[in-house]
Amino acid sequence: MAGEYQRIYQQFQSDPVKFWMHQSQRIDWHTPPTEAYHQDSQGLYHWFADAKLNTSYLALDSHVNQGYGERAALIYDSPVTATQQTYSYRELRDEVAHFAGVMRELGVGKGDRVVIYMPMIPQAVIAMLACARLGAIHSVVFGGFAAHELAVRIDDATPKLVLGASCGIEVERVIAYKPLIDEALAKAHHKVQHCIIYQRPQCPAELSPMRDVDWHQAMQTATAVDAVPVAGDHPLYILYTSGTTGTPKGVVREHGGHALAMHYSMEVVYAMKPAEVFWAASDIGWVVGHSYIVYAPLIYGCTTVLYEGKPVRTPDASAFWRVVEEHHVNALFSAPTAFRAIKKEDPNGAGFKRHNTQSLQRLFLAGERLDPPTYEWLTETTQLPVLDHWWQTETGWAIACNPIGIEPLPIKAGSASVPTPGFDVHILDVDGTPCAAGESGAVAIKLPLPPGCLPTIWQNNERFKAGYLSTYPGYYLCGDGGYIDEQGYVFIMGRIDDVINVAGHRLSTGEMEEIVAAHPAVAECAVFGISDTLKGQLPMAMVVLKDSYSGTWADIRAELISSVRTQIGAIACLKEVLCVERLPKTRSGKILRKNLRQLVDGEALQIPSTIDDASIFTQIAQQLRSA
Ligand code: COA
Ligand code: AMP
């Protein structure tokens, strides 16, 4: 591949320090960095540690100070409440500064953690930016998670304050959040001094007089506070993501590297210009929401759209195109599953044709592999560039993309295109030997990771090192398998660990397995991901019951489904549960989950020679046929 991308990628590869120090000039630092990164006593990398900045200042005040205060910063579009509201940069800055004042009154300061459990309302964005303003560290928990998951995160982050809303709205269903918050706080060992609750008219919550503070009331008497400059390596947020066990991992993001990565990616990955409208149709509870609903568009001076709705059913499959038309969206970013849902209901793209989508220049897809049929349908329907890009919560921005801000490269369906400048991507075999072009292996990134990626797991350097850095010394292990072709295009083929992707939501089968195995009637079980045409993957459990269990299969099945839903949340979507007599294992006792998945998905079985008894697959196959 020749051309501008290659030139810039080589510039990065030959001298990453020089490359990123040059890029750092993009940022309106309080004190600019004198060095790119340093390694701490544990050998972990931190970018721009000797700089000073504040992300809330960059996202708001900096634009107001440059004369763009009246530009639209945030458009809130909520079909579920029939509301639309626009905040200018000045209005958003003032709200954020006042809410930071509310939190400061409650004793929140630099380094304190604040857990946010809110739906897709402007107050969630205000809360995040207000934490950043104080140098406090926010941890947003996705509203689809159950009280147990919230409690686990509260115990790990040990926040001073919890911010919540009285309810979320799922299409027509009002979900009371406050009882979930109360339950989580009662369950958590860590005790929180205060909760601030934003009351929504759809379901006002009862507040506990000693602990809870009403958002509206507190704002009436609040005084605005200025952004507090913090060191470049000061944590901005912790975002928990699923690992291979029931204990989620707190991905840490630091102010300096993150701000630069967000700015850089808006230009290189998304080819945006300040004042254009960027819409990431995701949720602030996920990394896409953090990076591309909140931080990147605002740091870059764009208008961001906060959409409290679904791709379908709010009210129909033309919802996305309606939003594009009404808010003049220039670039739309969502997950393939959202477009599969739209395609299912509107295969001929009538909704797209009905709306004036002239403003829209390109579409970005991530969160799971963009399957070629969805890519083709979307390209045909919209006649626009449809760009897959691959990243993870840990990196916070695209590891591989079509770098259209540098130069558009030819699209290859099924590939996320090429490594983004900053990411030195390699495919390694089990021994750590580089794979040849076209050969599959584990995807790894040469250290140091670029600015914006996680320096560590919150309060757990050892877990970070063991999970990501120890397999291939000098490399970060992504957890994905894939290959790079002769032209340098990256093909990500799926996870090589116990993580699955259900409707763009990252979930741990290991965690579900722990919950299922904990049921007193279960002798052993395996939970793994199977293919689903709409959601990409769905979890499936195969369960061996204890001989002593005397109840019915229907009862236990319902109990297992309900305990996963109660402990993780509705998004876990465990509905497929099969009772089997035995599970296939190797002679050393390892359950062959990969083969079970192949069996259910109708793929050829690649059974290892170490299998104990291969006839189990025949039994299970028969059961699947009759189930
Ligand atoms: N709060 C509470 N519950 C939530 C929730 C939230 N924020 N988000 C989802 N849920 C619930 C849903 O109501 C549903 O509950 P149910 O089983 O009682 O019906 C369950 O969790 C599963 O939700 P979901 O996986 O979203 O399935 P769905 O059938 O409601 O919708 C899609 C299917 C494809 C339309 C939807 O998954 C979607 O929009 N996906 C795109 C996801 C996305 O953008 N991911 C971002 C990554 S970039
Ligand atoms: P999350 O941390 O929730 O963003 O999920 C990250 C995981 O989603 C990655 O490790 C991949 O397995 C998968 N993923 C995200 N984007 C893509 C993509 N464009 N192509 C293939 N897989 C993807």
From TrEMBL:
AMP-dependent synthetase/ligase domain segment(s): 65-446
Source species, domain of life: Bacteria
Enzyme Commission number(s) from the entry: 6.2.1.17
InterPro entries reported in the protein's UniProt record: ACAS_N (IPR032387), AMP-bd_C (IPR025110), AMP-bd_C_sf (IPR045851), AMP-binding_CS (IPR020845), AMP-dep_synth/lig_dom (IPR000873), ANL_N_sf (IPR042099)
The Acetyl-coenzyme A synthetase N-terminal domain, residue ranges: 5-58
Keyword rRNA-binding: no
Keyword Disulfide bond found: no
A GO CC term assigned to this protein in UniProt: intracellular organelle lumen
Residues covered by the AMP-binding enzyme C-terminal domain: 511-590
Keyword tags: Ligase
Primary enzyme class: ligase
GO molecular function terms listed in the Swiss-Prot or TrEMBL record: propionate-CoA ligase activity
CDD domains noted in UniProt: PrpE
Family from the record: Belongs to the ATP-dependent AMP-binding enzyme family.
PANTHER family in the cross-refs: ACYL-COA SYNTHETASE (PTHR43347), ACYL-COA SYNTHETASE SHORT-CHAIN FAMILY MEMBER 3, MITOCHONDRIAL (PTHR43347:SF3)
Protein name according to UniProt: Propionyl-CoA synthetase
Organism: Pseudoalteromonas ruthenica
The encoding gene: prpE
